[in-house]
Amino acid sequence: MAMISKVGLVLIGVVLSFRSASAQTATLLPLTTKSAKAHRLLEQAWDLGIDQVEQEKAIRVLRKALKADPNFAMAHEILAQISLEPSEQVSERQKATATKRNASLAEQAIIDWFQNAADHNLIPAITNMNDALRQYPHDRWVVYLSSNWLAKQTQYDRAAAIYEHSGMTDSPGLMNNTAYTYASIRQFDKAFILMDKYVAALPKDANPQDSYAEILRMDGRFEKAIEHYKAALTINPGFYSSQFGIADTYSLMGDQVRARQEYDLGFRKFSLPELHRIQWRTREAITYVRDGNITAADAAFQAIADHAHTKKMSQVEADTYRQMAMYQPHSHQALLFLAKAEAALHEGSNAMPGLIQQELAQILRARVELALRIADEQTAEANLAELAALSDNSNDKLIETAYHGAAGALLFSGQDYKDAVLHLEEDIHNPLSLKLLVIAYRQMGDISESKQVGDTLADLNDPTLEQAIVVPAFRKCIQNAACDSIIKTASLQH
Amino acid sequence: MQNGRTIALAMWMIAVSSLVHAKQLAIVTDTANTTTNVSAVDLIKIINVKIHNWPDGKPVTVIMRDPGASDMQLVLHRILNMTSEQARAFVQAHKSGIMVADSDDAVLRFVSSNPGAIGIVDLYSLTKNVNVLKIDGKLPVEHGYLLSGN
Q1: Phi–psi pair at B29, nearest 5 degrees
Q2: Is A460's CB within 8 Å of B14's CB?
Q3: What is the structure's pLDDT at A485?
């Protein structure tokens, strides 16, 4: 197998591996394709997808690359990851695995890594990742995929370290990615340093302003965030995520009427890919939850579920029904929605098996929480046992955290705070668990921990349903003298 | 999903503060070691230098990072049952059986090239050059695993 640079192609009639720059060949991941055009298009997909975050354009470019070389395994893998169509995610993952024998060992390790992750085989996934990282710690694809995946595994420090040690600190896409990693652990000083560099590197692109806005919003600086979203739209009026970013921000600020106006403007103005449309339709539906208007929320969520059903997007449909169950004031209604969620999941259309298992875990968790709400401990225990079995057989971080959240809630309800904390601490990304932790620490007399978790919870500014259900009420409680004294004293400094 | 401000891959994540994230530590041996599972009781004895040989007779060498380091709190509390200072003194007193390395990479290098070695590393440091031991039949990430938590 010949290794050649893209500036001096030598056709030898067999599968070739293209690299980017001859001086750096030893440090760059070989991208195995018989087509120079396909290789060039994959590099273009980086510029569009990772640097500029023009995801749809990047997807179109990747599809062209795969027309030029249908056996380009890494292009299949990248498309599987960034596609906005569930059916394409599934088929491209299969094609990546089917064509990997054409690829270099490092590319095979990357494809195996994501296949193992999708199959819930975490340990082989980690060793595959480290295998690729050990060989190519300075390759932007390897650095990006590793740091991004680790951040999703909540390994933020490790994700940031990979970027810092990569020597790729001038890569706009990596700056952007790492800024989010730092923001996720609320190291906003580091995040904004990277954002300043990102804006300076791509002053004519919209995404740096959009990212800046989102990180400002995570930091609770809403007005500034809206300014940056508007700056992004001035640079590129077609950059729709900034329009929806403005809407999300108004929703977090508590102005649901304005938020819905902005969502509506976005839906009228832009033609969106399916998953993005569903994402922001869901956010729009959440505005009604924030308003406490359950009827309107139900109508909005139901429309999303119906749409997902029509499009045969089973996991999306199931997740929508699960969310509907979460905010229902009446338990019998919540149970009906959870049954619908499970029914949708059983259809299993256009969803990777791993995603179906993860959704099932979320549904079981919701069942445990619902049973506890109506003091049905027996049902809670039965669902927790099912979730424990799923966790035992899956080796999946998301499923495991769902189990811990549910187990913590059950122990908490039995006032076994010490054991509850052990589980809830494993689920610190979920506002539902954070709220229980605030109280559990307080009940155990650990005021300092209680305050720290209370601060974290009160500072959460993510436009999710869990945030909508927990955080505004928690903030109000802190301000209200008549509110739960345990919660109130847990966060005295607010 | 992270909105598309970084390219959207699979699922959303939310912001958290500087709360400590749950850790999982893996127990590793060289790939020639035929032991695949160890009971928590035996693991505690091995790390406390009370078991000196593997079932096949090879001598055990323990290697880990500074047991007083914050990353090793799980080992302190669940295996050694000591304070940081006590653990450091214990290691000093058992230099022939316990080695301290300055990084997970160093632990992994040592274990992969020294038959009989047993090391403790962060789950996310794992490489193909070592075997991962189950504890009481459980791998890291499975619930109930001994070396998981805050």
Answers
A1: -135, 170
A2: yes
A3: 63
Rg (CA), chain B: 17
Is residue A301 within 8 A of residue A323, CB to CB? The reply is yes
This model of the complex carries an ipTM of 0.89
Which 13-72 residues of chain B touch chain A by CB within 8 A?
13-22, 26
B chain contacts of residue A387, beta-carbon cutoff 8 Å = none
The pLDDT of residue A8 is 29
Please name the residues between 205 and 224 in chain A that touch chain B, using a CB distance below 8 Å. Answer: 207, 210-211, 214, 218
A176 interface with B at CB cutoff 8 Å: yes
pLDDT in tens, A370-420: 999 999 999 999 999 999 999 888 777 789 889 999 999 999 999 999 999
Tell me which chain A residue has its CA closest to the CA of residue B134.
A123
Residue A233: inside a domain: no
Q: For B148, name the nearest residue in chain A, comparing CA atoms only.
A: A426
Q: What per-residue confidence (pLDDT) applies to B22?
A: 64
Q: Is residue A287 one of the residues assigned to a domain?
A: no
Q: Which domain holds residue A62?
A: 3-116
Compute CA A452 distance to the chain's CA centroid, rounded to the nearest angstrom.
Answer: 24
What homologous superfamily is domain B23-149 in, according to CATH?
Answer: Periplasmic binding protein-like II (3.40.190.10)
Name the domain boundary from A72, A96, A116: A116
Nearest to A149 by CA among B9, B59, B100, B123: B9
Minimal Cα–Cα distance from B114 to chain A, Å?
20
> Do A127 and B128 lie within an 8 Å CB cutoff?
yes
* A231 assigned to some structural domain: no
Counting residues of chain A whose pLDDT is more than 70, the rounded percentage is: 92
How high is the pLDDT of residue A21? 41
pLDDT value of residue A484: 67
Work out the minimum CA distance from A13 to partner chain B, whole angstroms: 34
Residue of B nearest to A188 (CA): B17
Q: Does A77 touch chain B (CB under 8 A)?
A: no
pTM (2 d.p.): 0.83
The ranges assigned to domains in chain B are 23-149
Q: What mean pLDDT comes out for the span A103-127?
A: 93
Residues of B with CB below 8 A from A152's CB? 9-11, 13
| Domain finish residue from A92, A116, A140 | A116
The Cβ of residue B92 has, within 10 Å, a number of other Cβ atoms equal to: 10
Pairing outcome for strands B130-135 and B37-38: parallel
pLDDT at A240 over 80: yes
CB contact under 8 A, B18 and A395: no
With contact defined as beta carbons under 8 Å apart, do A252 and A468 qualify? no
| Predicted pLDDT at A246 | 98
Does residue A467 lie within any of the structural domains?
Answer: yes
User: Residue B124: closest CA among chain A residues belongs to which residue?
Assistant: A126
Q: What pLDDT is recorded for position B148?
A: 84
Domain count, chain A: 2
**Measured between CB atoms, which of A50, A187, A425 is closest to B7?**
A50
Mean pLDDT in consecutive groups of 10 residues from the start of chain B, 150 residues: 42 38 86 95 92 92 88 85 88 89 95 96 96 94 80
